[in-house]
C-alpha cells in the first residue's frame, strides 16, 4: 500500500470522525473546547489530508 493511498484512507477516517463530532455532540459541554468546533477542525484537516493523498498518488503515477 503506497503512502498516497494511506493518506487518503486516514484523511477519510479523520473526516468522518470530525463529521460525527460536529453533527452529534451539540448538547455536550466540555470545559475547554466545544466538541462541535473540534469536529469542524477535524473535518478540515481530514479533507486536506485526503487532497494531499490524492495529489501524492497522482504525482507518483506521473513520475513512474
TrEMBL record:
The keyword Transmembrane applies. The chain crosses the membrane at residues 7-25, 31-55. This is DUF5708 family protein. InterPro entries: DUF5708 (IPR043762). Keywords: Membrane, Transmembrane, Transmembrane helix. It holds the Pfam family DUF5708. It comes from the Bacteria. The lineage of its organism: Bacteria, Bacillati, Actinomycetota, Actinomycetes, Mycobacteriales. It comes from Nocardia suismassiliense. The keyword Transmembrane applies.
